[in-house]
């Protein structure tokens, strides 16, 4: 496999101005005729050939300007078609045969669950026709889809419908035209028998946009929330960024067979059905929130990604980091900002921090890749969004908006790099972002250590920050980053203290953003009457790990007094993590464990607080996961962490039994299900109480909660709690749940996942049995993620069994998937990425599995990239 490098990037020698596609779908083969209007670029080198990508295509015909080429006129080697000696401008026509009906990779044109559909990002278009399949080639598309009318009554492609009609033999066609130039990765087409839910949206300038949601007929009653979310997204982008939609129609197609979450194809989004379909009986509060977020995300791409696109794939974060930032802001405005921030940071810590500390660590703008699909990562997406957020923090909302306006003014219709975005922000605001740019080129999570010093005599308080950016593969001796530290100081009375820096004459504000960009830097505050407690990195103002020598008492103080809700939560998490990790050594030495009284009291105080947002209470009192705790240890002690965490949970359950019960009752509600923040918060806190209560009450009470649930949020919460219990009620509930929902594939994913993440003994054996269940399908990525993915990523204690059988399951799955769906295989293979963090015995077991995968015949390049990097 070849590695591609950012430093080798050159603009294309040939541009394709127009693309005319004719896609003739038959049951056992599909013919694609493409007519490309090509023009040589003025910068092209003398004699440069025209290069086109093609994968698994059977070339039937090839013509230039109406003349059929013979085999001496071109070469077709591997996945590249080379045409030498082309004129300045010409028309190229190719006809190829492809097989969507047997395409299990779910890239290019594929057939799944009765529908033909496409996924072209990043490099899927080359599986449909020969094309310079790179994002800096932008063209106008006209696409005609032909298929059997009875079987596939719905025929769609990007843009506007310009013609449709019947053909001989019961076939029909539809021609779509997209007036906006776009890169090939945004092409989409669909042929299927789908229900259509219609709505419309009137833009700020008064244009009416038709909204169309295409779903399976049986799912037609589950689109309401997605449609409302789309309308909210459209209005939000107009209000927040002055951005309107630009076509007369916006289509969304839902499929159960999809590699990723969703895809922003121009005017024709394709969605994983889990991010479209919902009603209270089948979807949880989290599902509803995710739908709103993903619908928003794909809609926002229309400007950040489609109108302004990428010049090459190394720049992926230009569209993804920015669009994640936009969807996070949208969700924050629709619900609770603090709760949204906490859940985003949880994701970052659970997925991105480990990635940044592992063999695949890369900057948000990677410098090389073997398989682009492997770089749709938490780093590019989530850390990328944090980088945009830091620019927002440094500039403030008004200057940030000016920067966005300038970015669109300069680059609308273009294919650009991350640099263009940073430059626009800099030019619009006058803020120098020179050092800040290191966030684009340096990988690794900076570790910031904070030392505190109070001088009672001078009333000076000094914070000294030290940063270390760890070495990552291919990068060492890094430069210090520019880090925004949003902070405040809190007095013993819980009141904020004015922040006057040394040398300032006027009294400072109560909160400020320090810019820390050296290896070590001190900030001295004057006029501080008594020693304060600092609240640092408020709202998680930078994607770093902070090390502050807070005592238990100080963390409890912050948990109860910090005016920043994010930091209250973070203090609670730090307190739990310190406590649990502090016990791991005692577990190893078989010592008796005990939980501190002040901690128990602090938990009780938070739990029974009568003015705090219930959602924040629930978040604060959710213990850090075993994975997250492991990540805080240099050498992960799987069994020690499990035992210590269970002990803390059991003890809190026992000691605060009455409170959990009282709050549980208080949160109960028999009214109809509503999706407002308050109701969501109430259900969340109720579920948390249930998890603690199940540790001390009989399984019958949990079963009753399950049986009496009237919505999926409560039902799944109870089922999840039951799934951990080694009791007959657990089996009984699983059986009832299956019987009730066996016709709904998305609900069955929850059934698989709940069993895969269970703490009960024998979970691995059950997962293996479930992989043989008639409702499991290795070809369906949602099923693979729900069962095998959930087990390997979300159940560390069982996955890391000492007999290596968990590892065997993962290796076997990767090898099977390698031949079916390489992109999902690669993703699964990354489950071994942290292998060096475990004890020697486990390291040996995982290494052997990695080697077994590496030695598989016909290993896909993406899987090769993951396992070979892991083995270095
Ligand atoms: N571009 C897509 C998204 O993130 C990824 N498939 O929305
Ligand atoms: Zn995206």
Care to describe what's here?
The chain contains 27 helices and 32 strands. By secondary structure, the chain is an alpha+beta fold. Among the domains are: 190 residues, Sandwich (Immunoglobulin-like); 130 residues, Neutral Protease, domain 2 (Orthogonal Bundle); 76 residues, Aminopeptidase N, middle-beta domain (Immunoglobulin-like, Sandwich), CATH 2.60.40.1840; 131 residues, Peptidase M1, alanyl aminopeptidase, C-terminal domain (Zincin-like fold). Helix 5 packs across helix 6, helix 9 runs antiparallel to helix 10 and helix 16 runs parallel beside helix 18. The longest helix is centred in the middle third of the chain and has 24 residues. It is globular, with a radius of gyration of 28 Å. Diaminopropanoic acid binds next to strand 20 and helix 2.
Entry keywords:
binds diaminopropanoic acid; 872 residues; 27 helices; globular; Immunoglobulin-like; Neutral Protease, domain 2; binds zinc ion; alpha+beta; eight-stranded mixed sheet
Q: Can you describe this structure in just a few lines?
A:
With 872 residues, this protein is α+β, with helices and mostly antiparallel strands. An 8-stranded mixed sheet has the order 6-5-9-3-2-12-15-14, with no helix packed on it. A 5-stranded mixed sheet has the order 17-18-19-21-20, covered by helices on one side.
Question: How do the helices and strands line up, and which of them pair or pack?
Answer:
Layout: E1 4-5, E2 14-25, E3 30-40, E4 50-53, E5 58-64, E6 67-68, E7 75-77, E8 80-83, E9 89-98, E10 108-112, E11 115-119, E12 138-148, E13 154-157, E14 160-166, E15 171-183, E16 189-192, E17 195-202, E18 208-215, H1 224-241, E19 249-255, E20 262-263, E21 268-272, H2 285-300, E22 309-310, H3 316-334, H4 337-356, E23 368-369, H5 378-395, H6 397-411, E24 415-416, H7 418-429, H8 438-441, E25 447-455, E26 460-468, E27 483-490, E28 496-497, E29 512-516, E30 520-525, E31 533-535, E32 545-548, H9 552-561, H10 565-588, H11 597-607, H12 614-620, H13 626-631, H14 638-655, H15 657-667, H16 677-693, H17 699-708, H18 712-723, H19 728-741, H20 745-756, H21 763-770, H22 781-794, H23 796-799, H24 805-818, H25 822-829, H26 840-854, H27 861-871
Parallel strand pairs: 2-12, 18-19, 19-21, 22-24, 25-32
Antiparallel strand pairs: 1-23, 2-3, 3-9, 4-8, 5-6, 5-9, 7-8, 10-11, 11-16, 12-15, 13-16, 14-15, 17-18, 20-21, 25-26, 26-30, 27-28, 27-29, 27-31
Helix pairs in contact: 1-2, 2-3, 3-4, 3-5, 4-5, 4-10, 5-6, 6-7, 9-10, 9-11, 10-12, 10-14, 12-16, 15-16, 16-18, 17-18, 19-20, 20-22, 24-25, 24-26, 25-27, 26-27
């Amino acid at each position: 496999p070849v590695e591609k490098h950012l430093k080798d990037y050159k603009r294309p020698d040939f541009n394709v101005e127009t693309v005319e596609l004719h896609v003739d779908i038959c049951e056992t083969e599909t013919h694609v005729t493409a007519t490309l209007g090509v023009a040589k670029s003025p910068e092209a080198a003398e004699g440069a050939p025209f290069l086109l990508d093609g994968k698994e295509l059977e070339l039937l015909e090839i013509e230039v300007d109406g003349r059929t080429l013979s085999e001496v006129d071109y070469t077709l080697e591997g996945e590249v078609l080379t045409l030498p000696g082309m004129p300045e401008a010409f028309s190229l026509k190719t006809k190829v045969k492809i097989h969507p009906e047997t395409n299990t990779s779910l890239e290019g044109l594929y057939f799944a669950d009765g529908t033909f559909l496409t996924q072209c990002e990043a490099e899927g278009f080359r599986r449909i026709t020969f094309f310079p399949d790179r994002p800096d080639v932008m063209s106008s598309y006209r696409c005609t889809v032909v298929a059997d009318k009875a079987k596939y009554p719905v025929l769609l492609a990007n843009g506007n419908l310009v013609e449709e009609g019947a053909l001989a033999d019961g076939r029909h066609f539809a021609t779509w035209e997209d007036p906006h130039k776009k890169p090939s990765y945004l092409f989409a087409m669909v042929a299927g028998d789908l229900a259509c839910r219609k709505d419309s949206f009137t833009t700020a300038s008064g244009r009416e946009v038709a909204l169309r949601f295409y779903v399976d007929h049986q799912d037609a009653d589950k689109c309401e929330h997605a449609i409302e979310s789309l309308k909210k997204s459209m209005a939000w982008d107009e209000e927040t960024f002055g951005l309107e939609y630009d076509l007369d129609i916006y289509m969304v197609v839902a499929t159960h067979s999809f590699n990723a979450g969703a895809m922003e194809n121009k005017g024709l989004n394709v969605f994983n059905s889990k991010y479209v379909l919902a009603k209270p009986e089948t979807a949880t509060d989290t599902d509803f929130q995710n739908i709103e977020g993903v619908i928003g995300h794909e809609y926002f791409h229309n400007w950040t990604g489609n109108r302004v696109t990428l010049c090459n794939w190394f720049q992926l974060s230009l569209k993804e980091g920015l669009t994640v930032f936009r969807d996070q802001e949208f969700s924050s405005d629709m619900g609770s900002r603090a709760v949204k921030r906490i859940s985003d940071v949880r994701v970052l810590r659970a997925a991105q921090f480990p990635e940044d500390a592992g063999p695949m660590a890369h900057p948000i703008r990677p410098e090389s890749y073997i398989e682009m699909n492997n770089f749709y990562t938490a780093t590019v997406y989530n850390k990328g969004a944090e980088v945009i957020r830091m620019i927002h923090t440094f500039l403030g909302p008004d200057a940030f908006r000016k920067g966005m306006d300038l970015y669109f003014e300069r680059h609308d219709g273009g294919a650009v790099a991350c640099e263009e975005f940073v430059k626009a922000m800099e030019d619009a605001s006058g803020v120098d972002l020179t050092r800040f740019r290191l966030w684009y080129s340096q990988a690794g999570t900076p570790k910031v250590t904070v030392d505190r010093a109070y001088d009672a005599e001078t009333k000076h308080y000094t914070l000294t920050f030290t940063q270390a950016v760890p070495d990552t593969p291919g990068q060492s001796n890094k430069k210090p980053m520019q880090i925004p530290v949003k902070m405040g100081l809190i007095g013993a009375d819980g009141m904020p203290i004015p922040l006057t820096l040394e040398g300032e004459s006027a009294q400072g504000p109560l909160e400020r953003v320090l810019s820390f960009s050296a290896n070590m830097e001190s900030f001295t505050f004057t006029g501080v009457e008594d020693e304060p407690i600092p609240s640092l990195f408020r709202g998680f103002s930078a994607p770093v790990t902070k090390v502050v020598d807070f005592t238990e008492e100080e963390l409890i103080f912050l948990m109860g007094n910090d005016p920043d809700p994010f930091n209250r939560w973070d203090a609670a998490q730090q307190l739990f993590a310190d406590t649990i990790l502090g016990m791991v050594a005692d577990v190893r030495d078989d010592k008796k464990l005990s939980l501190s009284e002040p901690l128990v009291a602090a938990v009780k105080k938070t739990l029974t607080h009568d003015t705090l947002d219930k959602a924040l209470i629930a978040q604060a009192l959710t213990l850090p996961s075993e994975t997250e705790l492991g990540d805080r240890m240099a050498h992960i002690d799987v069994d020690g962490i499990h035992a210590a965490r269970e002990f803390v949970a059991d003890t809190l359950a026992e000691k605060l039994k009455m409170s959990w019960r009282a709050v549980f009752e208080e949160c109960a509600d028999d009214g109809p299900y509503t999706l407002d923040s308050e109701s969501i918060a109430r259900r969340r806190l109720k579920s948390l109480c249930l998890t603690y209560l199940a540790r001390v009450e009989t399984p019958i009470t949990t079963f009753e909660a399950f049986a009496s649930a009237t919505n999926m949020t409560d039902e799944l919460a109870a089922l999840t709690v039951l799934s951990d219990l080694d009791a007959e009620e657990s089996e009984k509930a699983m059986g009832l749940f299956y019987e009730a929902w066996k016709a709904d594939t998305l609900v069955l994913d929850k059934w698989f996942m709940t069993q895969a993440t269970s703490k009960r003994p024998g979970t691995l054996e059950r997962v293996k049995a479930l992989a043989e269940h008639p409702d499991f399908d290795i070809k369906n990525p949602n099923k693979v993620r729900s069962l095998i993915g959930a087990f390997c990523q979300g159940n560390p204690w069982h996955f890391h069994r000492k007999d290596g059988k968990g590892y065997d399951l993962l290796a076997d799955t990767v090898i099977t998937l390698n031949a079916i769906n390489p992109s999902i295989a690669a993703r699964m293979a990354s489950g071994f990425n942290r292998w060096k963090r475990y004890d020697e015995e486990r390291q040996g077991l995982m290494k052997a599995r990695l080697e077994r995968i590496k030695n598989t015949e016909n290993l896909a390049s993406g899987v090769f990239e993951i396992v070979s990097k892991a083995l270095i």
